[in-house]
Structures are given as C-alpha cells and as structure tokens.
Give the backbone structure.
Amino acid sequence: MTVSLVWLRRDLRLADNPAIAQAKADGRPMLFLYHLDSERLERHDVDGIHVQWELDCLDSLKIVIENRGGVVLFRYGHILESLTELHELHNIHTMYGNEESGLQWSWDRDRAVADWCQENNVQFEEFPSNGVIRGLRSRDDWKALRDRRIDASLIEAPSRIRTLPNIQSDAIPHPSEFGFKVRELQHRPEPGESAAMNTLFSFLDERGRGYRKGMSSPISGVEMCSRLSPYLSSGCISIRQIFYHTKRKQRRIKTNPRSAENRGWSGSLSSFQSRLAWHCHFMQRLEAEATLDEQAMNPELDALLDRPFDETKFRAWSEGTTGWPFFDACMRSLIATGWINFRMRAMLQSVASYTLSLPWRASGAHLARQFLDYEPGIHWSQIQMQSGVTGINSVRAYSILKQSQDQDPEGEFIKRWVPELTHVPMEHIHEPWLMSAEEQKEASCIIGTDYPEPIVDEKVTRKEGISQAYKAKADAEAKLRSKLVYLVHGSRKRSRFQKASHLK
Ligand SMILES: Cc1cc2nc3c(=O)[nH]c(=O)nc-3n(C[C@H](O)[C@H](O)[C@H](O)COP(=O)(O)OP(=O)(O)OC[C@H]3O[C@@H](n4cnc5c(N)ncnc54)[C@H](O)[C@@H]3O)c2cc1C
C-alpha cells in the first residue's frame, strides 16, 4: 500500500487548502507531516514566539484532523532524514504541499526535497494558495493574475480523512524542548483556524467600521485593525478567505450604504482590501528575490548610505530606552505584545535608519523577532522601503515628535508603556527633557537618572539622515539601478515614482 503525504508548512488550516484537497482527491490514505527544520531555529530572524505560535496552531489543527479520521506526524531536524524514515515506513506515493515564498534557506530546502522525491520515485506536487505568482514573467502581468487567483472559488475542508490503520498522531512538543526560550506575550491571540475565522468576523461585523481612521494610532489600532496577520503568517486563514468574506460584506453594504447599520463601512473596507493586495504585492517581491534579508534591492544606494553599527544606539533603540517617550512606548509595547500597527512599525524602522543611522539588516532582524506575525516577504520589503534602500520609494523619515503629538496627544499610550513618566504633566509628556529641574523633581522623573536623555538630537540627525538619503538617491548608478528595481518589484499603480523625472 502507498500513502499520500501532506507536507504542512505555513498553511495550517483545513479549509481552502489546495494541497489537502488534492491529496484527498487522489484517494490514497493520507498522512500529514509538520517538520520543524533545525536549520530554521538557528536563524537570526527567528524567535521562540514564532515557533510556539506555529506549534500551537498546529496543535489546534491536529485536533480537527483527528476528529475527521486523520493523523498528524511531527518531526524535528533535517527534512531529508525525516522523509527517508517516513518513506521506509509508509511507502510515500505522492507528496503534496502549498507553495511557500520564503527566504533563500527555504528555497534551498524545497529544492532538496524536490530532488529527494525524484531520486526516490516519489511524486511532488505543489499548489499556489495565495496571490503570489510563481515563475511570473513580467511584473506588468501580476495584478491581473493575482486578482484572478484571489477571486477563484474557495475550497471546502474535507469532512472525512482516510489514513492508515493502527497509526497515531505524534504529540506536539513545546519549543523549550529544542532549547528555545519563549517570552510570554501579553494578549497573545488564540491560535488556530477557528480563532482566525472568529477574528475575521469580529472585524467584519463590528471592529472594522472605524478601520480607515483608527488604523494609524497604536491605541485605536489594537481594536480597529483586523489583527489577522499572525493567522496569515501561519496560514490558519488564507488571503482568499479574507478577500471572499470582505467582498460579500462590501456587496451587502452597497445595497443600502446610508442605513445606520452600514454607515462608515464603505471606506474602511476598501482600505482593508488595498492592504490585502499589498500583502500579495510584497510577498511577490520575495518570490522574485529570496535574499531580501541580506541584499538591498538597490545595492548602489545601500553602499552609499553605509550606516555603521553602533552598539549604544542599537541597544537604546531595540530596548526602548532612547529617551523619546513615544518611540520607547511603541518599542516596549511591541516587545510585550508581539504586535504594533503599521504606522508605528514604519516609524520604528525609519528612526533606526534615518535618525540613528543604524544598519537595516540588524534593525530588521530585531523587529522580525518581535513580531508574532513575522512574514519575511512583507517584512524585509518594508524594512528596505523604510530605510531608503530600494530607490523606488519616497524618502519617508518619520518625526517622533509629530507622531507622538498626532497619535497620542494626551500621552495615554506613553504613560501605559513608560511608567517612569507617569507623573510628568501633559504639556511635557512628548519632550520631558524640556522640564526644568524643579518640574523634574515634582514629576519624580529626573532626566538622565530616572529616564534617559534623548540619545541624539532628533531634529538634527533626522535632517542629516534625510539629506544623506536624497544625496544618495541622486547618484547616477543608484538611479540606473532604481529603474531595474522598478521593473522587477514596482507597483504598477500610477505612483509619484512613475512620474518622477529621474525615471524618464
Ligand atoms: C517595518 C515593517 C515591518 C513589517 N513586518 C510585517 C511582518 O513581518 N508581517 C506582516 O504581516 N506585516 C508586516 N508589516 C505590515 C503591517 O504593519 C502589518 O501587516 C499589520 O500591522 C498587521 O496588523 P493587522 O493584521 O491588524 O493589519 P490590517 O491593517 O488589518 O491589514 C490586514 C492585512 O493586510 C496586510 N497588510 C497590512 N498592511 C500591510 C503593508 N503595509 N504591507 C503588506 N501587507 C500589509 C497584512 O497581511 C494584514 O494582516 C510590516 C510593516 C512595516 C512598516
């Protein structure tokens, strides 16, 4: 007897899972394999929170699979060794998986698996499951192909799963068994496929009404953003499922947009749909260039910007002890919860690159380890964008003071995450170093003792960072490279960049 092996990677769901549907359709007994690659655990962008989240999502999927008659096998180590062992035991006929757009190490792994399958007479079938187009010939074609893919019908979860007799699932271990320390996250979401669906519906039924306005603030964003990102990165939900249910809601609203029930939704849902398109857009970049964590899209710009590593600045930045209250609050909140909204992520990175002139690879790896939703395709594209090393995005160096005043005018968020500033009066909460000695005493916050002085003068260094970026962008070779970057990675939506003179 032969079996079909479903290789679960970052697609931990039963519904809308093409690999599972195909394995079921071929009629052989099925085995599910989740393989934790030892190589992955050694990487600088991986943290225990990622591994635990994935294993908890797997545990939840395992229960669903078992309830339908299937089994889930767990292996740790080198994938080819595990496949050899399983092939000897169960005689694999076909391996099914969904395409993964990951960093170079995962491409190398997938290629090794494909070679192993060929050598061992095992068929290997992979399926697209999101808006990333494998083997895309021209970026000009991407949007139409993506839209068609995303709009296709959803795939139902199998109600029964046939497996081999006398075989049981493996227990899913805790990451500490592999030597991983896992930091406890505050308000960590519930793992698994049904929790993902509940999160989607709570957004579409209620929380998302204020999305367009609420997403920019780290206070309202917690509730008004969808919070679907960790589910997307572990694959507990597919981008097509989210798209499908959002479109249904949009259709319902269109029938009576002015009713009290529907008011406020239309703009929020169209902003949300754009974000879903961005998801695929950025993932496509990694599909085209798997080394975005190491290699800048525009190496000429990167070389010109040449930002050296400075231990003191990096530590203050990464721990949230810079002396800038709003910045520190954002970093500390991210470390504690594993999530922060888009605008604040962009600010954290742009401060590292422009204001502190730190190298993007180091700051990017630190942020990757903090995000529960770490998704390499989005992450490294955004890190490069917010650091000015793509050449196709405008220079955007966030002012901490402006963000602080706009997003947290009362200092509520600051006081929640930076308790040293609890008694600082509102008029000084954004710039406590401006308090007189007397005021500092009254606020029980001596600057330099209880709370640090700003690590640099933001106004001066940010300005320097911006002018350095514009100077580098004007370089002839960097400009030439930008044209090539645009051809491979650029959004074809009409943008300021396309109209920019240096591209003519
Ligand atoms: C420096 C930096 C690093 C980032 N790293 C990641 C990452 O590792 N993983 C990740 O999922 N997102 C990342 N983002 C994008 C964005 O901040 C998060 O997707 C979003 O904050 C997640 O919260 P949400 O699901 O509530 O988002 P929503 O605002 O509700 O958006 C819904 C979904 O749309 C997609 N999306 C939203 N914004 C973007 C964007 N700007 N680019 C691409 N896709 C987007 C995500 O899949 C998100 O889950 C990063 C942004 C920056 C600036």
Q: What stands out?
A: DSSP finds 24 helices and five strands in the chain. The pocket of flavin-adenine dinucleotide is lined by residues 215, 225-229, 232-233, 275-276, 278-279, 282, 341-342, 345-346, 349, 371, 373-375, 378-379, 382-383, 386 (CB under 6 Å).
